[in-house]
Amino acid sequence: MWKWLHPYAKAERAYQLCNTLMPYFAVITVVCLTVGWVWGLAYAPADYQQKDSYRIIFIHVPSAILSMGAYSSMAIAAIIALVWQIRNAELAVISIAPVGAAMTAIALITGAAWGKPMWGAWWVWDARLTSELILLFLYLGVLSLYHAFEDKKSAGRAACILAVVGVINLPIIHFSVEWWNTLHQGATITKFDTSAIDSSMLWPLLINIIAFAGFVGVVTLIRLKNEILQCERHRPWVRELVGRGE
Amino acid sequence: MRITNLLEIKSVTCTKQERCLFESLSFSLEAGQIMQIEGPNGAGKTSLLRIISGFARPDEGEIHFEGQPISDNYDEYAAQLLFIGHKTGVNGQLTAYENVCHWLRVHGCQVDERAYDLLSLLGLVGLEDVPVRTLSAGQQRRVALVRLWLNNAKLWILDEPFTALDKKGVRQLQIRFSEHLAQGGAILLTTHQDLTTHFAALKTLVLEYQL
Amino acid sequence: MAQHSYWQLFFSVYSKDVTLAFRQRSEIVNPLLFFLIVITLFPLAIGPEPALLKRMAPGIIWVAALLSTMLGLDKLFRDDYNDGSLEQLIASPYPLSLSVLAKVFAHWTITGLPMVLMAPMFALLMNLESQALGATVLTLLIGTPLLSFIGAIGAALTVGLQKGGILMSLLVLPLYIPVLIFATSAIDTSSMSLAYGGQLAILGAMLAVASVCAPIAISSALKVSVS
Predict the structure, then answer these.
(1) CB-based contacts of B35: which residues, under 8 Å, 6+ apart?
(2) H or E element: which one contains B36?
(3) Would you say residue B85 lies in a domain?
(4) What UniProt keywords apply to this chain's record, in alphabetical order (chain C) (predicted)?
């Protein structure tokens, strides 16, 4: 692990890695997003019960999945940063956090928009919606803690500790909220069974998930590149880079 | 036997808020040596002391104590370290005696009768059982400085130890420094006082204010 | 290092905080008063019908408990940070997590324990059935140390900041949710005369995990704050 990670502890190597990875992610995003949205929004058959309003699934589900995926990757980066004391991993945590928070917000907003025609209310205290909301709080906690520190080195480490604490708590929170929901289930909620989804809808959904993953990757990489440059801007290699106008 | 360096600072760099305080700073301290760090305000004296004490991490470089990097076994290093900073760690609500006892217990020393004697030696007779916040600045500092007489740490790191002390206090402290050096200890301190008359073997490190 | 000196450290850190709290009694009394006032506000806001209050009592008691533990948390490390005692604790030959454990335990003695003792009275104010009294006390007994542990992580992260108080509540309150859910559900279940051992067991398990993991997180957070 260490041997594999070690070269990327150097900021310059990490920056180069970002540059190499970015085109792949960008291509995946553009291709999958175009295919997925056109297929999902225009060609996939309408649901026999929900008609066309179900199509928000092609945004809602991918963003919800990615909101959790982003949190786990953030936590992994945070653990790496704390254990091996790699500054670039701290920067990665900071780069992922706003992207993940945005994904969570998208999932919540689309969820509410979907809930209005389906459940007749903008907000229902459904287990998944509630844990998604708490996830948003955790993201915002990491972000506001980072921005509260003046010294960005301490800020990065503090944010990492909070991210790790959060990821330990997340399963407990999720489990407790699910359990709470089954106890207090007031209104019957029509739940989606993902396995029962027809393949004509499943395929565009999967493509959209990949597209969203690619999108999160691209945005994170762009942010990470900026963070590295910001952090290392007094180093010769950055000056050289800026001098070349790249 | 070769005299080994007690403390070794290996090309330590520290930047704070965009400003480089010092870059690739290296020096060493042997047993029995005292070093004074000088420099204008904001030159990074306190930051350097905090890095050497292990509270802050340097951007680059390492600190070695008795040949070991301090981050390897910090608790063992801490047993040999006595740090008194600007903030002395004296609680204003507690009395002088309680403060000393608490400090001793936290640092694994036995609490005995010496604490009272030393408080009176340092001119705090009759003030042992008064909350420290009612004492004057110099008296409060003495409550912190009692630690110098009470422990057997090899390395003393003192940030402006003479602040607020009167002439007698300064002299007592200097005598205590000499005793510690004679016992094979080492001292690293910042002060604006002139110590050359008292310590012939004084090492000095001058930090410049860098832009 | 001899075993008794670990105990000596723990006891010294613990007794310092408790002594200080007893010298300034407001530290003990204020959270309790706050607890009482929050509870008083609810009947005034939602109406005095006994059935409604009974239904809401577990939630109200626990939300009030969450908020009143937050009061003491900001002070938990702040004084030690300001006067430099925290640096002295770090530069002691003992692991920082042990001192931290003592401090958290002291915080619980100052804010949590009085709440546990006063809980039956608060429960009566809310018309809770007598069979639910035991559950209220037990959940508070297991739950409040948990609140102290989790809250101390937030306090340690924000102690170096000028306006850490509000930020700390933002960080800590979402992490309190599982405690709130299981504790209130235990009281609910008990008022229906059902067995609530399961919820208590989960709370206990969380407390066991927290008492091992939280001191590590707290001490690394303190080191970040001090640097």
Answers:
(1) B27, B29, B186, B187, B188, B189, B202, B203, B204, B205
(2) strand B34-38
(3) no
(4) Cell inner membrane, Cell membrane, Cytochrome c-type biogenesis, Membrane, Transmembrane, Transmembrane helix, Transport
Distance CA B1, CA B94 (A): 47
Taking a C-beta distance cutoff of 8 angstroms, is the pair A228, A88 a contact?
yes
CATH code assigned at B7: 3.40.50.300
Distance between CA B131 and CA C19 in Å, rounded? Answer: 13
Structure tokens at A202: 């499943």
Which residues of chain A are within 8 Å of residue C81 when distances are taken between CB atoms? none
Digit-coded pLDDT (tens) for C19-74: 999 988 888 899 999 999 999 999 899 888 888 888 888 899 999 999 999 988 98
Cα distance between residue C157 and residue A155, in whole Å? 10
Q: How far is CA A212 from the centre of its chain?
A: 9
Exposed, middle or buried by CB within 10 Å (0-12, 13-18, 19+), for B206?
exposed
C83 touches chain B (CB under 8 A): yes
> Is residue B166, in this structure, part of any structural domain at all?
yes
Please identify every stretch of chain A with a pLDDT value under 50, giving residue numbers as ranges: 186-194
Nearest to C83 among B54, B90, B108 (CB): B90
Inter-residue contact A167 to A72 (CB < 8 Å)? yes
The DSSP code sequence of C110-162 is IIIHHHHHHHHHHHHHTT--HHHHHHHHHHHHHHHHHHHHHHHHHHHHHTTST
pLDDT tens string C85-108: 999 999 988 899 999 999 999 999
pLDDT of residue B120: 85
pTM of the model: 0.90
- Return the domain boundaries, chain C: 3-226
State the residue range of the domain holding B148: 92-152
**B197 SS3 class:** coil
User: Which positions ≥6 away from A158 have C-beta within 8 Å?
Assistant: A145, A146, A149, C157, C221, C224, C225
Task: Give the ipTM.
Answer: 0.88
Spatial distance between the Cα atoms of C118 and C28, rounded to a whole number of angstroms = 12
Q: Give the closest-approach CA distance of C104 to chain B in angstroms.
A: 16
CB contact residues (below 8 A), chain A span 190-229, against chain B? none
What are B51's two structure tokens?
């890095």
- What does chain B come to in residues? 211
pLDDT digits (tens, 9 = 90+) for A47-86: 766 677 778 888 898 999 999 999 999 999 999 999 888 8
**Hey, what are C179's tokens?**
């405690």
Q: What percent of chain B has pLDDT over 70?
A: 98
Q: How far is C19 from chain B (nearest CA, A)?
A: 9
The answer to whether residue C157 scores a pLDDT higher than 50 is yes
Same domain, B99 and B145: yes
Neighbours of chain A (3+ CB pairs under 8 A): B, C
A134 close to C174: Cβ distance less than 8 angstroms: yes
Alpha-helix residue ranges (DSSP H) falling in chain A: 2-5, 11-38, 57-84, 87-119, 127-148, 152-184, 199-231, 236-244
